Amino acid sequence: MDLYRIQNGEDIRGIGLDEIIENGNDIVAIEWAEKLGDFLPKKRIDIHFKSQDHTREITINIYE
């Protein structure tokens, strides 16, 4: 899910993403996840991709 155009919590609730996150049983890939703010769950896996000068770096952080 691309959150680039999300402006606030009302937008997140408007698309039902808050309910999906609260469910805790779904897997959701989110681009621009920092826009979730307080909706970002504490238990999650963050995967960051960085591409530069013909190289790729992938960082995985697990929060439980």
Strand order of the largest sheet: 1-2
Following the backbone from N to C, one meets helices and strands in this order, namely HHEE
Distance, first to last CA: 22 Å
Helix content: 10-25%
What is the helix tally? 2
What would your notes on this structure say?
The longest helix is centred in the first third of the chain and has 7 residues, at 17-23. With 64 residues, the chain is of the alpha+beta class. It contains two helices and two strands, in the order ααββ. A two-stranded antiparallel sheet has the order 1-2. It has one domain (9-63).
What's this model, at a glance?
By secondary structure, this protein is α+β, with helices and mostly antiparallel strands.
Write the layout of secondary structure elements.
Blueprint: H1 9-14, H2 17-23, E1 44-52, E2 55-63
List keywords for this structure.
2 helices; globular; alpha+beta
